[in-house]
Amino acid sequence: MAETLLEFADVGYAWPDGRPVFSGLSFRIAAGDKVVLLGPNGAGKSTLLRLANGLLTPATGTVFWENRALTVDGLRQREFARAFRQANGLLFQHPEAMLFNPTVREEIAYGPRQLGLGGVDERVAHWAAELGLDGLLDEAPFALSGGQKQKLALACLLAVDPRFLALDEPSASLDPASVGWLIDTLLESTRTVLVSTHNLSLAAELGERALILGGDGRLLYDGPLAPALQDLPLLQAAGLAHRHRHRHGGLAHAHLHAHDWESS
Ligand SMILES: Nc1ncnc2c1ncn2[C@@H]1O[C@H](COP(=O)(O)OP(=O)(O)OP(=O)(O)O)[C@@H](O)[C@H]1O
After folding, report:
1. What Rg value do the Cα atoms of the chain yield, rounded?
2. Could you list the residue ranges that cross the membrane (predicted)?
3. Which residue has its alpha carbon closest to ligand 1 atom 8?
C-alpha cells in the first residue's frame, strides 16, 4: 500500500470570530491518490485545502504531512518549510491572491528561484508553453483575463514540481479545452491530487475517490467516487443535486437532478 502523504486526525477548525467550520474531520490521502473534494457552498472545502497547505492551523486535532505533525513551529524550521513548500502546492479559488510579480515570466520564475531550483528559464518556457501563455510572458499578470490568471497560477505551481497539488475549484474560469488539458496532465502524472469542485464532469474524469463535506462541516462520505456519483440523496446533501418541479401536460411532479452529470 502507498505511504500516507497527508492525514487529518480529528481536525476541527473555527474562524477567529468563533464560527466553527468543522470538527472531528479524519481522513488519509496516500501518495498518488487522485481525490475530489465535494460539498455545498460554505461547507469548508477552501478551509480544508488551506489546512492541508499549512496556511491555517487546526483548532483541535492534527494535520500530518508524511506522518509529521504540521505545526506553526515546524513550518518556521527552514529545511522543513522549504521541502514542504516545494512538495505541497495550493491553487487558490481566486488566483489574484497568488500573483504579484511585474510580468508573467517573473511570476512563473518566482517559486523556482525562491526554492533555489535549477533550470528556471526552462521551467518558465515549458509551463508557459503547456498553458498557452508563451505569447504573454512580458505581460503584467494583473492585465490578464480571469482564465489566463488561473492558468498562470497553475503554471507557477507546476514550475516547482510539487508532489501534492491541492486545487480549489480549478474549472471555475478555465475553458473546456483547458480543463481537458488539466485532467490529462494530472492523470498522466504521479502527483497526489486533491481537487475541490462543483463540476461533476471534472470530478468523474479526474477522481478515483471522493471526500464529501456536508453543509454542517461533517465528512458525509469518504470512498470510491463512482458510486457516490450515482447516489442522488448524497449528492443533494453535498449541494450537487437539487429538487426540480416539472410540468408535463397537466401533471406536475418533483424529482432530483444532478446537473452536468445525469440528464440536466
Ligand atoms: N476569512 C474568513 N473569516 C471568517 N469566516 C470565513 C472566512 N473564510 C471563510 N469563512 C467561512 O468559513 C466557512 C467555510 O468557507 P469555505 O470558503 O471553506 O467554504 P467552501 O466549501 O470552499 O465554499 P464555496 O463552495 O462557496 O467555495 C463559511 O461559512 C465561510 O463563511
Report:
1. 19
2. none
3. 47
CB of 239 shorter than 6 A to ligand 1: no
Residue 35: is it exposed, middle or buried by C-beta count within 10 angstroms (0-12/13-18/19+)? buried
Question: Do the beta carbons of residue 176 and residue 202 sit within 8 Å?
Answer: no
Quick one: which atom of ligand 1 is closest to the CA of 39?
Answer: 21
ipTM above 0.90, yes or no: yes
Q: Nearest-CA neighbor of 167 among 259, 49, 248, 86?
A: 49
If pLDDT is split at 50, 70 and 90, which confidence band does 217 have?
confident
Lowest mean pLDDT among 46-55, 91-100, 203-212: 91-100
pLDDT at 254: 58
Measured CA to CA, the distance from residue 36 to residue 210 in angstroms comes to 5
Does residue 263 carry a pLDDT above 90? no
What's domain 4-258's superfamily in CATH? P-loop containing nucleotide triphosphate hydrolases (3.40.50.300)
Residue 41 CA to residue 217 CA, distance in Å, equals: 11
β-pairing, 164-168 vs 88-91, is parallel
Compute the mean pLDDT over every residue in the chain, rounded to the nearest whole number. 89
